[in-house]
Amino acid sequence: MILGMTTFTFVHVVLSLIGILSGFVVVFGLLAGKRLDGWTALFLVTTVLTSVTGFLFSFHKFLPSHGIGIVSLVVLAIAIFARYVRQLAGGWRRGYAVTAVIALYLNVFVLIAQLFMKVPELKAMAPTGSEPPFLVAQLVCMAIFVVLGIGAAMKFRSEAVRTA
């Protein structure tokens, strides 16, 4: 047990947090018109691993987290295809920017849900996850990511993108 978690859960959480942190670096790079190749690889790998390991927890029925994991893997497949196969050519550049932001959003969405489930003060405010504090937190998060996604799509669209 590490911090009250099984080793597997701890690894899953660490992968998720690395994915989120590196994802923010990547998104701010997109907003600056930079590819940030190393950060991008770290973000994509850890975010894929986060989604995949999420399916390895024992479960007896299909949960909302499984749906988010499936959507995340589809979005990540598009992002990886756009970035590494299509080499950001043409419309794939904008598609990559949008899917990278969506992948990060989904990871942050799950983080917020987990915080409301695990942090006693937040759980007290929204014990079932359908109360206003949880919904407001998720709506604010979504609004921020919509703005980031639009900005990334606009700023990363030029062909003269700088690498770093």
Describe the model.
This protein has one domain. The protein has helices at 7-31, 37-54, 64-85, 91-118, 120-125, 132-155. Helix 1 packs antiparallel against helix 2, helix 1 (7-31) crosses helix 4 (91-118) and helix 3 packs antiparallel against helix 4 (91-118). It has 164 residues and is mostly helical. The chain starts with 6 loop residues before the first helix and ends in a 9-residue tail after the last helix.
Low-confidence stretches: none
Number of helical elements: 6
Number of domains: 1
Measure the end-to-end span: 39 Å
* Mean pLDDT, all residues: 94
Broad shape: globular
List SSEs in N-to-C order: HHHHHH
Number of strands: 0
Helix fraction by DSSP (H/I, runs of at least 4)? over 70%
Rg over CA atoms, rounded to whole Å, is 17 Å
Strand content range? under 5%
Main beta sheet: none
Decide which structural class fits the backbone: mainly alpha
Brief descriptors of the model:
single chain, 164 residues, mainly alpha, 6 helices, globular
Write the layout of secondary structure elements.
Elements: H1 7-31, H2 37-54, H3 64-85, H4 91-118, H5 120-125, H6 132-155
Helix pairs in contact: 1-2, 1-4, 1-6, 2-3, 3-4, 4-6
